[in-house]
Amino acid sequence: MPPLQIKDYSWQQTESAVYLSLPLRGVRPGNADIFCTENYLKVNYSPFIFEAFLYAPIDDINSKAKIGNDAIVFTLFKKEIGMWEALSLASVDKEMMQRIREKSVLQAQAKAKELTEAKAVAKREDERYALKIMMEIEENERKKIEDLKENERQKATKELEAWKEQQKNAVEEEEEEEKIKEVKMCQQKKQIEKEIKKSQDKKTINHIKSMKSKNSTKGKNAKIIFSEKLKDDCVPAPRSTGNIKIQFTPRVFPTALRESQVAEEEEWLHKQAEARRIMNEDIPELHDLKEEEKNPEWLKDKGNKLFGTENYLAAINAYNLAIRLNNKIPSLYLNRAACHLKLKNLHKTIEDSSKALELLTPHVADNANARMKAHVRRGTAFCQLELYVEGIPDYEAALKIDPSNKVIRKDAEKIRNIIQGTELE
Questions:
Q1: pTM for the structure as a whole
Q2: Which strand (E) or helix (H) includes residue 72?
C-alpha cells in the first residue's frame, strides 16, 4: 500500500522565517522520521508522508521542529531575506524530484561527515590542551620541589662550611697551645740546668781538683742525661686515634655470586639499558611540549599519581602516550593493565599483562615481583570472564614466584574448587 500524501497543512512566513504546521494525530518524537536539507523537507509518519521541495534555500542547521499536540510545527530560517511566492516549487517533475532527493541525501552525508570530523578535531584539541595544562601543573610542582631541594642543599653546604671553619680554628688553637707548652717546658729545663751549674761552682776548689776527673765525668753524664731528657720532653705528644668507615659498592643483585644466574642478570640489565635508550618523538601531540615533558618515566609517574586518585581513564591516557614514546618498558603495560582491570576492560587487561610478561625476560630476582603481579592480574581477568581453567595457571605461576603469599594461595584454592564443582557455600 503506497504512503498517503499529507495535503492538509498550513504555513506562514516573515522575511526571515517560514512557519509550517503539519497536523498528525498521535504523532510522538519517537515515531516520526524527519529529514531536512537546504532545499528539501521530508516527514515520514506511517502511513503518511509529506514532501516539500522548498521555494528557496533555508538554514537547515538552525531550523527547528516541535512535535506534540497531534502536530509537527517547523520553524525554517531563510538563508536570504525576502518573501516566498509559495512553500514548494511549482513545476517539479519526477526526474527533478529524484535529483533533488539524491542531492539532499549527499548534502546531508557530507554535513554529517564534516560535523563528525569537527567533533573529532575539537576532542583532540581538548585532550591536547588538557594534557598540556596537566604537564604545566606537574612542571610547576616539580620546580617548587627542586627549589626547596636547592635551598636545603645551599643551607646544608653553608652549615658544613661553617663547621669546617670551626674545626679548623679549633685545631689551630690546639696547635698554638701545644707550642706555648713546649716553649715553657724548654725554658724550665734551661733554668734547672743553670741552677745545677751554680751549685757545682760553689764547691771548694780542692774538692774540684781532687775529684776533677770524677766531677767532669759526672758533669758530662748529667749534661747528657738532661739533654736527652730535654729532647724527649720537647717532642710533641702523638695525635689521638680514630676510626675510618669503609663501605663497599653493593652488587646490583643481592644474591651470592655462586647462587646467582650471572648470564641472565647481565642480559636483563642490558635489556633495561637498551629500553631506556629507545625514544620515539615523532608524535604530533608532543610538538608543542617542552623537551623535559617528552619523558616516558615522567608520564609513568603522572599515570601512577592519577591511578592513586582513582582517575583511571586519565592514567590510561598517560600510559598510552608513554608507550608510544617507548614500547619496551614492561612497567607501563603492567600499570595500564591495572587500570583496565579497575574499569572491567578485561580483554585489554589480558593483552597488557601478556605484553608485560613478554618483556619481563629473562627471569631474575629483580623482576620477580613484577612477573608475579602480571600473572595475578591476567589470572584475575580470566576468572572475571569465568574462564577459570585459563586463569588457574597464572595463579600457580604467581605462587611459584612467591610461595609464602597467603592471599594468592587462598584465591588459587577457591578457583580450583570452582573448576572441580566443589566450592563451599
A1: 0.41
A2: strand 71-77
